[in-house]
Design brief:
The chain has 275 residues and is of the alpha/beta class. The protein has helices spanning 3-20, 38-45, 61-64, 84-96, 115-124, 137-144, 169-178, 191-200, 230-236, 261-274; strands spanning 22-27, 49-52, 69-72, 100-105, 129-132, 158-162, 181-185, 208-213, 221-226, 243-247. Bound molecules: S-adenosyl-L-homocysteine.
């Protein structure tokens, strides 16, 4: 067989396989399978291969995706055992064998989830790709602690930011001036620079802050303080990732069955008065 024909045949095989294979990016929600959408569960039930992250609801994958090979690409903050480019290659390669590949991600695939990069990689390889949105932790994790992001007369907007890299001074200035509620994902490491930056740009030191760790797990924990106190409160509580930060007056409305936000804030404010 001449080289040209062999190449054409191979391409035909690949094209045929690509037509048969497909990729579904599924937003898995904040970690508990009952917050997975019906569409997400349906995609998993039809999956041949599932690549999942640590923050996705992976505990029950054997039941949710009974026919699939399960691949842990287990991202944890600062530790990606499989690089993003390798994850994209794995998704595409499996799809090119004709498989239905589900990429199961935490929360929503398009909220700080690099979902868009994975869609682009599929498109570049000619693999059909579909995105099933998920319940984002930005909204769901505050709710797990009983914190509404908006409340008429208290906050009529919320801004979601990534704390993965430190915010610039101009971003902090804009955030401080916006009002409303600020939600920070991946913000445990940058908590001091965020709180100091907001205060530097005029946010009141008494503005309430909540940190909700491991939402929807058995070890969910909420730490409440103010812009002035929260760095100390977080250190005392040994706060760690994954956690969502909520900054704003809505934190006063928290009701999570533990000590009420009002009590915790009163304590933080009393301590601030003494110091
Ligand atoms: N795409 C995801 C976010 C990915 S970034 C979404 O829409 O939710 C990862 C960050 O999300 C974590 O560092 C943390 O800030 C937050 N997060 C996700 N699940 C969480 C959970 N169950 N509890 C607390 N924070 C969570």
């Amino acid at each position: 067989m001449d080289d040209g024909k062999a190449r054409a045949d191979r391409r035909e095989t690949l094209d045929g396989a690509a037509r048969a294979g497909r990729v579904t990016l599924v937003g898995g929600g904040p970690g508990t399978s009952d917050l997975l959408t019906v569409a997400g569960a349906r995609a998993l039930a039809e999956a041949d291969v599932v690549l999942y992250d640590r923050l996705a609801p992976h505990g029950e994958l054997a039941t949710l995706a009974p026919h699939a090979i399960l691949i842990d690409v287990g991202k944890t903050p600062g530790h990606h055992p499989v690089s993003q480019r390798d994850i994209e290659a794995l998704i595409v390669c499996h799809a090119l064998t004709g498989a239905h590949v589900v990429r199961l991600k935490g929360g929503d695939p398009y909220v700080f989830g690099r979902g868009s990069e994975e869609v682009v990689a599929c498109q570049a390889a000619g693999v059909p790709v579909r995105v099933v949105p998920g319940v984002t932790s930005a909204v769901a994790v505050p709710a797990a602690a009983g914190i509404p992001l908006t409340h008429r007369g208290v906050s009529h907007m919320f801004t979601v930011v990534s704390g993965h890299a430190p915010l610039t001074d101009s971003e902090l200035e804009h955030l401080a001036g916006l009002g409303g509620t600020i939600v920070v994902l991946m913000g445990v490491g940058t908590l001091p620079s965020i709180t100091q930056g907001l205060v530097r740009h005029g946010a009141p030191t008494t503005l309430p802050v909540a940190i909700i760790e491991r939402g929807y797990s058995d070890s969910q924990a909420t730490t409440i303080g103010t812009l002035a106190s929260i760095v100390f409160d977080a250190a005392a509580a040994r706060v760690s990732s994954p956690a969502v930060l909520v900054i704003g007056e809505v934190v006063r409305l928290a009701h999570d069955g533990d000590a009420s936000a009002a009590t915790l804030l009163a304590r933080a404010e009393a301590l601030a008065d003494v110091s």
